[in-house]
Design goal:
single chain, about 500 residues, mainly alpha, Rossmann fold, Helicase, Ruva Protein, domain 3, Arc Repressor Mutant, subunit A, 3 domains, 3-stranded parallel sheet, 3-stranded antiparallel sheet, 20 helices, 12 strands, elongated, disordered N terminus, binds glutamic acid
Length: about 500
């Protein structure tokens, strides 16, 4: 008979095992981590968790670390690890040490499992999937919640030998006493109290394997060993991990390791109040990037998802500014609704506040990717200045820039404008006036004068001439300031031919 482990909980009659080396997190440097599983691209929820960790670390002058949890061999892919690291870097969330790769630590995980078995905290369980299935079905029929009934916890040595001789494979289960009480003071949610009986029976910590081996170690076990190895002082993660935390605290106690502090952040919800998922369209940071959001805006918006900054910070800030005042007091417990309009607004504000040089650096690659031939730096900057106030997304810079790089085809509203009575005639007069005027470079005042003269000699309204000129130059009726547009096109010798073409 395997001896019963000491109870891990507080008031169930047994002395809980306490760490011999309690860590006072007050005196230690704060070390936090993001522990993503590389089974997909960087999800907005994971990125927000990363940001809260980073903000807290930065505020405490501590360290932000990354651990790639790649133990699910089938679903983990190196390209996802790369995407996650690149996405965080793009957002400005830099980590302080080389990422720890969980799969490289498998020996330490298996050693820990061995010691848990040796000390009576864990045992081999030979129950087959089919038996488990039957157990669950019975529980369901009786209206009970599914749980493992701990049936192999007290297997006699003889019975175990027999199963081993039969070549039965086994998982390793960690003992969870029904009477255990687990409590911690969550930095966001306050006092948390769990009963062992709510945790589903003894938990599997290593996958099925031959009985003389230890199978692949599982999350609730390895997370404790690795957080402890990385000397993590604060575990900050999504609220979907709360019940895992209860289980993990029992593992910390069994392994005699110091407990970190825990903070469980609210989930990100869609407009209907459900957990944001693939069905809501964009969920990966990479998608936001290709939609034309700036990293500054996305990081700014993510900080607002669940955190209410003090009023004096306002809603527009850099993550460095946020880090100066970030703490857990202003993190909400309720889920945070994702608001596209707010994100768009923040993005437009970030773009409008860029210097023209900065914005050009973002737009250049987009224009080059369109195959457009860029002009002089001075001209490019002028174009940026012209279109900047109307950009909401970076990629709006493609549509706004197109008529300056490519000769546009006339849209229906432009055709209609040019068909208006007097339109073509006034443009003809304008072009002949233009031909007569010896221009040395484009002069805004001269251009305005020319329009006035055309209005006088044609007898048409200035408004009609300007609208027709816009139709001729841009091929559409929407666009930035007309005279500046004309000036830019004149500088690359594109104005006259467009006017000629339309008359
Ligand atoms: N790999 C886990 C996840 O991605 C980590 C959870 C944790 O932070 O402990 O959900």
């Amino acid at each position: 008979m395997v001896r019963a482990p000491p109870c891990h909980g507080g008031s169930c009659g047994f002395e809980p095992r306490r760490s011999r080396y309690p860590i006072s997190t007050k005196t230690l440097k704060v070390r936090v981590r993001l522990a993503p599983s590389p089974t997909g691209t960087l999800h907005i929820g994971t990125a927000r968790t990363a940001l809260f960790n980073w903000l807290f670390a930065k505020h405490e002058q501590g360290e932000f670390l990354i651990r790639i949890e790649d133990t699910d061999k089938e679903r983990s892919k190196p390209q996802f690890s790369e995407d996650i690291l690149e996405g965080l870097k793009w957002l400005g969330i830099e980590c302080n040490e080389k990422p720890v790769i969980q799969s490289e630590r498998i020996n330490a995980h298996k050693e820990a499992i061995k010691s848990l078995i040796d000390e009576g905290f864990a045992y081999r369980c030979y129950v087959t999937d089919q038996e488990l299935e039957e157990m669950r079905k019975k529980q369901k029929d009786q209206g009970l919640a599914p749980r493992y009934d701990n049936r192999h916890r007290y297997l006699s040595k003889e019975a175990e030998n027999k199963l081993q001789k039969e070549g039965k494979e086994c998982v390793i289960r960690f003992k969870i006493e029904d009477e255990a009480f687990i409590n911690w003071n969550d930095l966001i949610r306050g006092p948390m109290n769990w009963k062992g009986s709510d945790l589903g029976g003894d938990m599997v910590i290593a996958r099925r394997a031959p009985s003389n081996e230890i199978g692949d170690p599982l999350y609730n076990l390895v997370v404790v060993i690795d957080d402890s190895f990385m000397e993590i002082t604060h575990v900050i993660r999504g609220e979907d991990h709360i019940s895992n935390t209860a289980k993990q605290i029992l593992v910390y106690q069994a392994l005699d390791k110091a407990l970190p502090k825990f903070a469980h952040t609210p989930l990100i919800l869609n407009a209907e109040g459900k957990k944001l998922s693939k069905r809501d369209g964009v969920t990966s940071v990479i998608d936001f990037r290709s939609m034309g959001y700036t990293p500054q805006a996305l990081a700014n918006y993510m900080a607002l998802l669940g955190w209410s900054p003090p009023e004096d910070l306002g809603e527009l800030f850099t993550i460095n500014q946020a880090a100066k005042i970030f703490n857990f007091d202003r993190i909400n417990k309720a889920g945070a609704k994702f608001d596209w309009d707010k994100l768009k607004w923040i993005n437009s504000q970030v773009i409008h506040n860029f210097s023209t040089e900065e914005l050009l650096e973002y737009l250049k690659p987009l224009w080059i990717a369109e195959g457009w031939q860029l002009h002089s730096q001075e001209w490019n900057l002028k174009l940026v200045e012209l279109i900047q106030p109307s950009l909401i997304l970076l990629k709006d810079g493609i549509n706004q820039g197109r008529p300056f790089f490519l000769e546009p085809s006339l849209k229906s509203d432009a055709i209609e404008q040019l068909e208006t009575e007097g339109a073509k005639n006034s443009l003809k007069i304008l072009i002949s006036n233009l031909e007569k005027t010896p221009w040395d470079g484009f002069e805004i005042n001269q251009a305005k004068k020319l329009i006035n003269e055309t209005a006088n000699s044609s007898g048409e309204k200035k408004g009609l001439i300007m609208k027709s000129l816009r139709a001729a130059l841009l091929g559409e009726m929407q666009g930035p300031d007309l005279i500046s547009t004309w000036s830019l096109l004149a500088q690359i010798g594109q104005d006259r031919q467009r006017i000629f073409r339309s008359i």
